[in-house]
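Raw record, unedited: U-box domain-containing protein
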Amino acid sequence: MPGSLEPLDLGVHIPYHFRCPISLELMRDPVTVCTGQTYDRASIEAWVSTGNSTCPVTRATLTDFTLIPNHTLRRLIQEWCVANRAFGVERIPTPKQPADPALVRSLLNQASSGSAPAHLRLSSIRRLRQLARDSDKNRSLIASHNVRQILLPIVFNNGSDELKNESLALLVMFPLGESECASLASDSVKIGYLSRMLTHNSFDVRVNSAALIEIVVAGTHSPELRAEVSSVDEIYDGVVDLLRSPISHPRALKIGIKALFALCLVKNTRQKAVDAGTPAVLVDRLADFEKCDAERALATVELLCRIPAGCEAFAGHALTVPMLVKIILKISDRATEYAAGALLSLCSESERCQREAVAAGVLTQLLLLVQSDCTERAKRKAQMLLKLLRDSWPQDSIGNNSDDFACSQVVVVPF
């Protein structure tokens, strides 16, 4: 239920004391400050984070920034929500409380202690992982205690597989610094370990290994180090295999395409992606990606179409051209740009692809694209493709559209 909902929208009045004095919205996690006033946690935290040190209602100085959960008020709000279900009001969930900094320090100390029993270290890592999943605030708190420096040695040093795997699952929830990424990328033993984990019998371990590989490649600024990681054959087989996962595993698709895109940014190793069967998998799974992941997938398609083997592999898939034509102007401006770029590469190399594109209706799509508010790069690619396909257009299409769009007047602007 939107917190700003007005009474007339549902025919029900939201009690005044259920609204946050700052946002005037229904409170979802009411907390009380030292002045005795109650606010929604997100609103008062935002108020304090911008430098305010007074109570918004009383204007008294906040001598203590501790936020005490108002469980009684929260239960009353939940009961009110349930009582008004007939008006479309949804019950607010019981919020998870922020992690205690002392607890986080204790768990990290226990996890990093080589003298602590293995089962206690494992329990600490699992508890930290649960806290990190609960909220962004918890992740920020855990990150502030040098969690990466604690977890990296556990993941790559000798120890029980279970402890290493749980530590890996927690580690990938935090971004690594550039120096950490460079250190991992330059260590062939550690990269070899991650590539082997891509064939682990645990599905989660495979996904987390791919996630760390993507973090390392994307976070390494050195082209030489990126190329070293991208040159490992086993990585491509493992990452592409993740993209074959059932749609019921959306995280595998997301991590798989992020890792594959990062790897394919290295020009000299794109052939390895093609050899691993990437073109067929990308085309088959293109419709399963969410928006951002679809953009990465299409960007990867365009990158691979820039090498002869990749262009040939995509051209050999019956669905490639129709799918790319269909995507134009459907997902986003970036997706349109990448799809047009891939089509330009394919049609430049294959007359059969030109005929397939025309049969799939690319003419109408490109003419609409040129007239749209899409990116200039997308328009330039569309103009080049229109010129390339001019001889393949059906005569009746040219006649029907030339007056409206001046097809013969297309100007090609070089990249």
